[in-house]
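Justification of computing resources. Each target in the renewal requires a structure prediction run like the one illustrated here; the chain below, 582 residues long, is used simply to show the kind of job we budget for.
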Amino acid sequence: MRKVTATAPRWAWLFLAGLVIVAANVVTQPARADFGDCMDADYLSNFGTSGEPLEIYDPISGLVCIVEFDIAYETPGGTRNIRGIRDINADWAFLPGAMPEVERGARAAIAALGTVGNYRVDDITILMLDDQESVMADGESERSVLGVANGPTLENECVITAYMFGPGGDPDDIAQTIAHEIFHCVQSESLSPEQYDTVTGGGIWWGEGSAEYFATLAVPEAGDLMGRASEFDDGVAAGMPLHDIAYGMAVFFYWRHNSAGGPSYLMPFLSLMAPSNDAAAQRVAMRDAMSEDMWLDFVEAYADQAITDPSGNPLGFREVDGTEITFDGNETETVTLSPFVVMQGYADHLCGEWRATLSPGTANISSRKLDTSDWIRPWPETIDARAGSNASYRMAGLNTGDDDVRVEIEVERTASCDPCGGTKEIDACLVGTWSYASGGAVEWMKSQGINITAANITPGDMTLRSDGIFITEPFGGSLTIEEDDAVGQGVGDVTAATGTWSAEDGMLYTCQETGGLSGEVTVTTPDATMTGPVSQPGAGMLEQSYTCSGGTMTTTLDFPGLGPMTTTFSKIAEEETSPSTE
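Resulting structure tokens:
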């Protein structure tokens, strides 16, 4: 570079000063977008709804296009512009205050874009038209604006057509609609062409849902203006998979905003969406984007009606009928979970204490008692509905697989609310866990002259709880009886028994709700061998006299005309704490 000295002529200094001024202007002047000519019919043909040319825009008939605003802003890809254009002759038909609302929506979108993660976008032109009833769909007559974004039609420019509906409407939704359409321009440039092509097909759930969420994020004062929560309710009520719900899926993106602590999740989430309209491809993308537990988090929040818009405002969900189950006895109920269809509803348990088993145990389902806020996954093992009213549980579930899942909920009532033996009294001496010591059924049968030649039966431990519930451990055994020329051999298992108990005036009452005997008996005679199953339910209500002292309990069961059966137990543990019932 040539060095200029103090002896240079005066014109050289002026020339250098001019260069500096020109350079400064080049640096400080905002970049201007290379927009198309809005007086050109070919350019205008890119606007409007797909396949419908804007016939009213014929330069020969007097169109005068003016630029209402042109805003430059910075993006991760460099400086971009958003401009708004209209026909100067059409301003009489616009809503009062509509033009400032369009610009407000554009500026609000620019501000919100800085929060959603890394994105790309082209320059954007918004063409504002007067009333175009022909483009309105059923149910849109109350709207004041309809936006259509045609992203990929022009190189380096995304065009939006905003149809203004008459001077008598409400302009409040204009800014949100403009922000919504601007986000479609972001989608078209940030995602692959294959992904963006699904926005009006299989990907409509995320395409429209995220755009509607973005509009509410950009213009929060309008809230859920278009009632997307109600649309989501409609989809759930109709049993639609989440990927078939369109604008109503804004509810999901509202929830994700709140669970993620802000909007920065949005672009990384959208980048995982499927490049195919196929429903199976959409489900794969949904599984890749969020875990099974997170999808259930969403359904639980919906069942609780706890989802708000990004500003924390309630969404006005309504109660949607769901699965209703009432357990009134030992039974099995079946719930079918279809792929990505929200399951929610209620399970009621009549008065008593219940034990529940879920199959498969890995089902993506949960429940919570109505008077608590804590969800249990997949299901509470024991349910106490003895506090004077039925135990009602809220249910939620979402199958994130590709096939229906059949979930069986098996319940057993381990205790009823009716007092066993007509009394609720208990003897504190009896509370604890007891183990068989001597006597019992085998010894009693021997005393009756039955020739038992082999016996291997040791009853399981029995726990008498202070809340009036008893539980016995399961056990098995075998027995051989020989009479004359016949030999009987029995092998069986006694399942765990549950029920209620009481004790008053030296009498012990047990009312068995679950449990019983199952096994096989073989009888051999000189002529034949016969084998058959044996099954015996629980004893129901049993009344015995008893004595209790220290660590020993003796029960006596009378058999009129045969003599009593006496059994002695030893206490092996005091009661610690009652099992959890939730």
